[in-house]
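Sample A.
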Amino acid sequence: MKYLKISLIFFVSILMCISIYLTKNLKLDASSDTLILENDATFEYFKYYNNIFPSNNFIILAVKSQNKIDEKYINNINNIKKNIEKFSNVESIFSIVDAPILLINNLKLSDLNSKNIENINNSKIKLNLILNEFKNSPIFKDQLINENKNLSSLLIYTKKNNKFEKIKNKKELSVNKNDFKKNNNEYLKIKKEENLKKEELINEIRNYIYNLNEDYQYFLGGIDMITSDTIKFIKNDIYNFTIGILIIIIIILFFIFRNLKWVFITLTSTIISVLFVTGFISLIKLEITAISSNFILLMIILSISTNIHIINHYKINYVDSEKSINLKNTIQKMFWPCLYTTLTTIVAFGSLLFSNIKPLIDFGNIMIIALIFLFISSFTILPLLISLFPKIKNSEKINFSILHKFYLISINKTKYIFAINIIIFLISIYGIYKLNVENSFINYFKSNTEIYKGMKLIDSELGGTTPLDIIIKFSENKESNFITEIKINDDVDIDLDEDIDIDIDIDNDIFVSDKNINNWFTNEKINTIKKIHKYLESKNEVGKVQSLYSLIEMANLINKDKLTNFEISVLYNEIPDNYKQSLIKPYLSIDENMIKISARIKDSLDIKRKNLIGEIDSYISNEFKNIEEYKINGLLVLYNNLLQSLFKSQIKSFGIILISIFLMFLVLFRSFKISIIAIIPNIIASTFILGIIGIMGISLDIMTITIAAITIGIAVDNTIHYIYKILENKKIEKKSIKLIENTHNTVGNAILTTSLTISLGFLVLVLSNFIPTILFGLFTALAMITALVGVLITLPTMLNKFKI
């Protein structure tokens, strides 16, 4: 036996060293890909049209002055631009000092191909006049400058890694497992490098602006910045959660056991399990997201819970018999209840695998792996550690007086308990009916964080944050009409007889060379684009809208007259490539006969995503008959799809979890009546939390929506331990009251301490900067307390009432 112990210690030590080494490869991900459904047809279309309409990622640096923009402010912008352009991962920067002056200098459309177009830096026009033009510009307003003219933005375009895009497409097109594995490994490697580059750039920008002129405020925004900050939050959360829960656990364990050796044994077993799991998930390359960042905390909570039950059983028998009970007997007695508690929790986390959401699937997989490791550890490493300290001096048993009060209430207040539970259940059903998933992404972050401040400012003063795209494919043209007049600023006027006076230099061969371009611009298409553009601008939830219409409207202002379709065709051909690349190609593909209208939604408003998408869809389908096909897409739609799908899937999976746990109860307890009684307190606890969330008007998000399933999976553990002890004691004692009293005094201690430990553990999540994580912690802690009351009051009341 001695050599076996030494061998086990050596083996465990080797595994720990390997696990610690592997943890350096732990992958963190917070990209927008983590907020979409897998195999979502909308996302597949999103990738398709983004290949047609080119766009580059950029970081937004907003600079706000206490006063109006002045020469000093402009000099500051020039200096910022000049210095940030030197950073290694910056491709280019577009700002207020680069924007062309197109109206007040009497520019003509024919001048657009000139390289000498004025901007703020080379113009002699008064600054205030230029700012007024930009503020009212169809292209630049609410993007480069705000309405009050005290805020402007620099769009910092990052260098595009073509190799990354290539391997990403290659991975998605992989036809067999080997190809996918090979491409995926390379994709993950390059993705990690890209994330590091972006993180480094954002840190460079931050370090730079921290030392800038204090007369101005600086805010960062953009997808890359959100991704980088969220990864930082994940790292901080993992660190804070781990430290916080360990401190709480040490205090609780010392209070329970009053002996440092028991604290050491319990913590060591738990830490070894956590290291094994972290090393293993690093090895198999499961990514940690904001959703799964609390996996270490959950592991510690669940491991401590199981260990307390095992040690409690060992210590009770040791004290009661006044001799050392063979450890083997304790392990044999606790094996089956712990196996079933592990299986029920696995079922709860397994429900996440059916969500079709990669971060939730990964979270489910991580926790299933963790639970398997924890169970094995509890019946191998824990007994090994206990055996190393055979002469542990037991402290005096702690008796919680509240347990006796719970016992008396459960026996003497049967009618009141049933009535209260029925009322709670009915209120919960009412609250569940009011649940919704209409939340704001901005409000996922604490208001004192930079990410929140930047997003809030951009959302309220620079045209919104969350992108919404409308992609339209027109029916093929039967005939073209070039000389139809389009009056942009008012309703469209059509005049086929008026002579055309075109003030654009035209290449004689231009229309011979590309007939598709000349045929494309028709009344019907321009009218359609304009109407949808204007409709979006009329919506309160919508901020900045950009489309081909923005350019046409600007061109009409430059021309100071009506533009005809013929002139628009010429404008398209004559406009310089640099303007075409940024002002036309992101919104028009003549080859595909498609256009894109982009809008940014004001996420800080109380928006109803589903309703907004429905209203836009209804407007387009009823108003336009010339559209062959249209799609409403973008991040707003993708995230709405995710939440709607998750809401439906979790409601369904909640029912599946209940049925699965009930079937497990039937196998474990071998009684239909006991199984029904056992499931009821857990249903009440989980529905109660959902009901409270609904009544409080808190919108469900990607984390809080899983509370019910996870709660019932964890809370049911105490039910199993309680009833298992009841059935064990029933072989000796037949009276229900005596059985319940004995169970309260023995297993009740473990149930109370583990429930309080779990609840306090979940409260550690309030240390997060991610609001969904905080809400998840608060409501899960409340759910565990509710479940505790259910197990120690409602459950014994029912067991006594129905004479189990």
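Sample B.
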Amino acid sequence: MTTVACNLKCEHLPRPLGVGTPYPRLSWKIKSDGQNQTQAAYRIQVWEDTVDGEPQWDSSKTQSSQQHEVAYSGTPLQIRTRYFWRVRVSLNDGTVSDWSEPASFETGFFSMRDWKADWIVYGRVGNAEGDFGKESVVFVRREFNVKDVAQLKRARVHVAATAGAWGNDTLRMNLYEFRLNGEKVGGDFYNPGHVSDLKQRALYRTYDLSGLLNEGANAVGMIFVSKKVSFELMLEYQNGQVEFVRSGEGGKTTNRRGPFVQLWDRAIWEYGGKCEHYDAREEFTNWDRPGFDDKTWRKTNGGTASPWILAPQMISVESYNTFKPQRIVKLPDERYVVDFGHCMMGFVEIKVPGPSGTKVKMRFSEAVKPDGSIHPASTYGCSGALSIQENVYTKRGDGLERYSPHFATYAFRYVEITGWPSELHMDDLQVNALCSAVGKESSFACSDERVMQLQRLCERTFLSNLMSVPTDSAARERMGWPGDASCVSTAECAMFDMGLLYEHWFDQVSDEQNPDGNLPYVIPSEQTLGRTDMCWSTCYGAIAWDAFMTSGDLVFLARYYDIFKRWADYVLSLQGQSGLSQGHHLFGDWLSKESCDGVLLENVFAYRALVLAAKIAEALNLDADASHYRGSADQLRSTINKKYLHDGVYGKGSQSESVLVLALGIAPVEVRGSLFAKVCKQLEEDLSFRTGIIGTQLLMRLLAEEGRDDLAWNLAMSDKLGAWRYWIVKNGATTALEDWDGGDRQTNEHERNRTCNQPAFAGGIAEWLYRELAGIKPLTPGYETVCIAPYMPDGMEHASAKIQTPFGPVTSAWKSHGAAYELEVKIPVGTKAEVHLPTGSVHKVGSGKYTFSGEQN
């Protein structure tokens, strides 16, 4: 029997650089050809720099089934150091694996005290005589020598940056680009991402410079719009000698504007990162190469006060695919409109012919008008202001020039191109589609193309809106609204590896929580949002719980527990003498079709906040807290029912109110049946939803829990207004629309409109496809116990899904031929499964591959 420990990861990554803790989390998976196997024990060894000699830490044989998020427990690790580690495992049947192949990780910095480089401040690079305006970027360069490239053992650069220099104008954009010897370092983008400025947090990114350095003279360059940046380049030689090149030492900067003419519209705060005008004639030619004449440049100012918090940026935005045009249309006025086939987030890379001074302008939209021209109203802001999603490039010379934006990203399907100097061809441009590096190890497939259209629609929408934080829309605010994020967190946790993205976001949530415990209803945001929204701010806890159920990561839960405890205490502080709170309701079940009682919804979500705090406390064995919040929740539940339940109806009797009290466990047993029956009757009659974004996701989950997957299936297949397929059939949507009827609006160019790429309404169907149609959902945190219970609708021939869990992939694949079915299940080592068959029987199995067949009832 072959047993192998594999897929070794440190802090969620296979070979991470820049780990920011002296006690990182280690994880692994186990492959074995046996059945019903679990890990009985592990042994971990860690060495500094090489697997040789005595290990720095040997865990010895540890009796434990834990395979993920095992904390390193040796002597504290050192900063800027490479480590190797390996693991061997013993299984419950006595099998002992060989040592795994060694994996590596490198530490970065553990606190601001470890950082020795100077910080360069955005506001100090210009002077009164220069052309340094609000929309300028800063250029910094420095030359240095490498004495013997062949003897380099390691070459790393750590680049740190804070939030943008101009608040909301610079919240949604790439804030720096680090360059070495004329080339951009790293393939990532959108750094450091959404970062709160309230606690002066700086994030550092670590890059491997192997193969990029020259013998002798080298030059680094940095262009930025962060408030502060800093970098440290480390050269480690084979003989043990270490040299550093740090910002502030011998650096030069200029107050000239350079080629960046415009990066945002000063009048529209929410459009930062959606505009770049670049005049290549104004470039500092070879400014980031050695030998550049920088006599007119001046020394950078060093020694400025450092930020307060330094942390690693372990996840960045990357290009996950490239796309070529599907269609190019030339309009009568010589404009081109390029259709890339579906909506996405990214940027266009162009190859421009023509003479020096040729100016090519690109405008971006998610929709087109009947005459084929772009419809920019789809990308307007919430204020109704004119979209400035545009990119302008002016050529430097007469030859063919390649260009892609340095700071801006765009949400679009269509691109309008003006000023192209010749006939535009398919090969002249391509899209780099962008998303945070959340991976795509999970998958779904089925025989019904209607379902696959929905699946692709959901996936594209989610990928477009995972940009450093889970954003509400790719085209508009691009901010972390918790209500929207909670609608998709269950689905996204099944489809992607969300751990690092959530950790990044919850760091910002922790930074921006008010001293009294109140949580802003969008984070981060330079606009102080001081009002309380019970419904939306409670959603942070729901997202954290989804993440924990997926990962089983108690370290994550403990790290952010204080957020939810303080929020729950704040929720309790708002209760009046009646035991209810009032006046803290803003968005509720956003975009629901029926009016709801705001005070009822406010207290329903207050109850949810208390229940979530209790569940998190229970998971962390904080029994006193758990008992306190559970008791407070039970008391509030009783008060809500006394106040708002009349003749089997809650509040105004809307579908949203009924769904929320049912799904969140507020409705007492004696009314649940009749209330649920009323909701089902409405759905059967309408074949569409009256609920808003939160209610729709919870309603699909409620139908599954109550055994009405048949009704959920009918809703999934409905093409009526108020159902998902209406978007596709009526509007040709390729990503989820913001509203059920969002694509029907005929607007003028200067009127606001709903976006065509907003994830919230897609969460309910995406979750249902994985958890119900394919039938995979966790019963215990981290999928240690998993339920396999697929729904097999009439007429569908097959469906399958693979979900990547901390123990390995869980697979469910079924086929149906009339009444006959076959179900194949694969369970990884360490996981147990409850397999529910269409006959009603339940089989409890351990790891391995199993096939079940029979006749459906």
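B remarks: Residues 274 and 389 are 5 Å apart (CA to CA). The two ends are 39 Å apart (CA to CA).
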